[in-house]
Amino acid sequence: MGDDVLLALGLTLFAGLSTGIGSLIAFFTTRTNKRFLSIALGFSAGVMIYVSLVEIFVKAKAALVNVHGDKMGYWLTIVGFFGGMFVIALIDRFIPKGNNPHEVKSVEDVQKAQSLGQGDIEADRLMKMGLFTALAIAIHNFPEGIATFMSVLQDPNVGIAIAIAVAIHNIPEGIAVAIPIFYATGKRMKAFKWSFASGLSEPIGALIAYLILMQFMTDTMFGIIFAGVAGIMVFISIDELLPAAKKYDEAHSSIYGLIAGMAVMAVSLVLLA
After folding, report:
1. Would you say residue 120 has pLDDT above 50?
2. Which residue, 98, 93, 102, 100, is CA-closest to 113?
3. CA separation for the pair 156, 68 (Å, rounded)
4. 5, 123, 134, 260: which has the highest count of C-beta atoms within 10 A?
5. Rounded distance, CA 149 to CA 221, Å?
6. Which residue blocks in 19-122 are alpha helix, DSSP H?
7. 169 vs 129, which has greater pLDDT?
8. How far, in Å, CA of 127 to CA of 183, rounded?
């Protein structure tokens, strides 16, 4: 196993297991820093959108045009791009809304629910909520693991940026798993373990990409998969990150975060080219 593969697996592991950071935040604070959360999610979206449309899509198109010519290569790139969107949208479609990882929960969300008369909800119901959320996040994060892994292999600089962006948006997902399990059991370590485990599907996705997809990798397959990665990243940004960032927005902080993410990504691509 080469150094590039180890780097790709390591970064995917880092991105996936950042859900554990979310659980730590939930345990050791009684108030969510909404401005910071809004900026961070907006920044993550900016990185993903910019790198997907300016770098990943372009490289996928170049690979496919090189093999199939201008017109067919462009068509295959478009098919891969929207195919990636379709896959992640299909996954979201089969995740119940109440357990959808796109429904970002802050520390206050659960506390407010309890104070409004929902605090007497049975412990097993809260536990079930946390476990289903963990399962939903695991399913949702699987293609993200493949996307991060493939991006790092193709261009480590781009892959590192994507891994950081994915890690940022995994933090509130970790909170969504940890809080209900903690309230159900009163055990911080149990909640942390489930939150941490929910991110394991990303490195598992990377391993499957390495063990299966890499065996059949051709220029055509690479181009289509890379275009799909761009589609997945854009979909996640528009469907998940931006709405969540706007939910906690204060004085357009999410937009400033979005622009900052794009700017940082643009400058880094130039400096590291």
Report:
1. no
2. 98
3. 26
4. 134
5. 15
6. 19-27, 34-50, 57-68, 70-93, 107-113
7. 169
8. 8
Q: Is the pLDDT of residue 74 over 90?
A: yes
Asked if residue 203 lies in contact with residue 12, where contact means CB atoms within 8 angstroms, the answer is: yes
Q: What is the pLDDT of residues 27-53, one digit of tens each?
A: 776 666 678 778 888 888 898 899 889
Give the closest residue to 101 by CA, choosing from 230, 184, 198, 207. 198
Single-letter amino acid, residue 188: R
Cα(139)–Cα(102) distance, integer angstroms: 12
Residue 145 CA neighbour count, 13 Å, CB half: 27
Asked whether the CA dihedral 152, 177, 257, 239 is positive or negative, the reply is: positive
Mean pLDDT of 192-203: 87
- Can you read off the two tokens belonging to residue 224? 């289509």
Whole-Å CA distances, 149 to 5, 142, 184: 8, 11, 35
pLDDT value at position 155? 83
Residue in this structure with the two tokens 């959320």, named with its chain if needed: 133
Determine the Cα–Cα distance for residues 168 and 161; give it in Å rounded to an integer.
11
CA distances to 9, 83, 126, 152, 164 from 103, in Å: 28, 24, 16, 28, 21
Q: Give the helix/strand (H/E) hosting 140.
A: helix 123-154
Looking at the predicted structure, is the pLDDT value of residue 189 above 80? yes
- DSSP character for 272? T
Residue 123 · residue 184 · CB < 8 Å: yes
Count of C-beta atoms within a 10 Å radius of residue 156: 17
At residue 179, the pLDDT reads: 76
- Distance from C-alpha of 273 to C-alpha of 267, rounded to nearest angstrom: 10
**229, containing H or E segment:** helix 219-236
